[in-house]
Fold:
Amino acid sequence: MLGLNSHDLKMFIVIAILTLAAPILLNPFPDASALGESFNAGYPALMQRFVIFGILVIGFNLLFGLTGYLSFGHAAFLGIGSYAAVWMFKLLSYNIVPAILLSVIVAGLVSVVIGYVSLRRSGIYFSILTLAFAQMMYAIAYSDLLGRMFGITVTNGETGLQVYNDDPQILMSAGDPTVPHLFGITMNGSSTWNVGGWSFIFQNGYYLSAIFMIAAFYLSIRIFRSPFGLMLRAIKSNQTRMHYTGLNTKPYMLAAFVISGMYAGLAGGLLSAMDPLTGAERMFWTASGEIVVMSILGGVGTLIGPVLGAGLIKYLENIVSKINDGILHNWFAFMPDWLDNLLVTIIHPFIGKGWHLTLGLLFMAVVIFLPGGLVEGGQRIGRLFRRKKSTDAANGATKPAE
Amino acid sequence: MGILEVKGINKRFGGLQALGDVNLSVQENTVHAIIGPNGAGKSTLLNVLVGKLIPDSGSVMFDGKSVLGLKPFEITQMGISRVFQTPEIFINLTVMENVLIPCFAKRDGAYRLHALESFASEKDMIEQAEKMLEEVNMLDKRHMIASSMSRGDKRRLEMAMCLVQEPRLLLLDEPTAGMARADTENTIQLLKDIRTQRGITMAIIEHDMNVVFSLADRITVLAQGMPLVEDTPDKIKNHPKVREAYLGEAQV
Ligand SMILES: Nc1ncnc2c1ncn2[C@@H]1O[C@H](COP(=O)(O)OP(=O)(O)OP(=O)(O)O)[C@@H](O)[C@H]1O
Ligand SMILES: [Mg+2]
Structure:
């Protein structure tokens, strides 16, 4: 069905259902409870980030996971997509269709140029080239170099780009919403379902992004299983043999790079559609690094890994950076005071603003103990279970990573 | 005129003359062996033929067309395939995928991406790959990951990957090195079959004289980058210069 084999189809359906039911699944605790306040993730602003960064990392994985070329400047395409979308809001109207189309197209065009140049090198040199390009674009955006050259505003420098009342918005008619919308359906509009202590929020913007992510995921499965995907994996596996296989690897690599850039552009466009303003920091190298970390954490070269990695990091970022000493004291209230204080002192550097410290430790732990990322972790647990269930199943035939 | 005409090739690596005025003429539908002691320049010569190295001077004509300056993939598309001294295969892919890749490469050339079809449903490609694996006796291993195979199997796999491209000239760099006796015999038989059934011309580098003498129609002996003699196997066996430079050494 859908041109997928039964295994992929199952995985796709599971992801689709989880994504669509996320507003409920991610709110397991009553809203007012202490657990709910700390650990619930089922609110729109956060869920949007799950799926949008999911798209970004799925696309990144099409390049890094399949070809092994590590782009260290992928956030540039995210930023470009965001700027392109905001410009569409400023010039045309708040309808997100032209905004998202343009963000994908512009990111695609820029990635043709950056890809063409960077792909002349491989390995670390490729990574450095992409990083250099991204930092250049960050610098251009941050100082609005382009704008100053022509005496106009392009990125609006450090202030960031946003929509003003006196912007042209030539396609805007009187009754149109003044926030991003899809033919009248506003992105920030939502309906709420109250049951018991829970209230589940179903937001239009989240569902739009979720549908894009499901489509992006579907497309990536198709690409993984296609002859094109096979060629990309072959390039990763052995370039020398590839050269003597009569196949020009350049167009294949460039296509992978551009597709991956367009995914990032789409993610950028969606970020702007959720919140119509953007700044240069979206292109900063730490943002690119975060994409790399997400994909390694999830499981490079696996289909589902990037989605897991993006989700986990955005979730942890959210809860860990929200926790403060007060919350910790609450948790440890049952302990003797000295132990409570000691624990809080130890944990203090890792919470709130110290979130990156936690992320660093987590990343190290995964790379050292689970080089295959969360997917490998899942496989190990799965194998444990299977062994427990049937000790006679001596067939050690492990499936290659998904 | 041979299918491959190599004239006056010189190649220096710094102070080392790796190839000095090498001529080689390989006739269509023959097996031409290149032998010589270690470091004689045999692999270097192959590297020149496939476009990996550019010689300092000389010419290489394949089927009447010059291949110098062409990229390896373009030379492969002209019909030259190469089996390497250390097998170059896709070690983390399955045996089947290894053979499928050259099938797709041959069909799609350089610019057709086929990004959305599923490669598992490309019946004729799968069939072609399976037939090839059958021929080299590896069909039962098609789901194995290539890295988990023995060295002999890796070589046979690489040979299958080259053959499935239907080359007109097959270059083999020590195809039986590291193989067990039985595997070597199988490989000799395989190469004989390839020649009679497919009519593929072969240039083969080999240290195992048993292999050389059971396959070759002509032999070129290289020593220190210089072509020593070129003749039929019988003549080479008894050539005093060759015995001195190479065979004598091998018989110790
Ligand atoms: N890329 C290179 N750079 C520098 N020197 C090289 C290079 N390739 C080969 N050589 C040198 O050229 C000489 C010939 O090497 P080559 O690999 O062609 O020998 P060979 O006949 O294939 O030997 P063997 O039987 O050991 O495979 C050797 O001395 C080698 O060290
Ligand atoms: Mg050699």
Summary: The radius of gyration of chain A is 23 Å. Residues 392-401 of chain A have pLDDT under 50 and may be disordered.
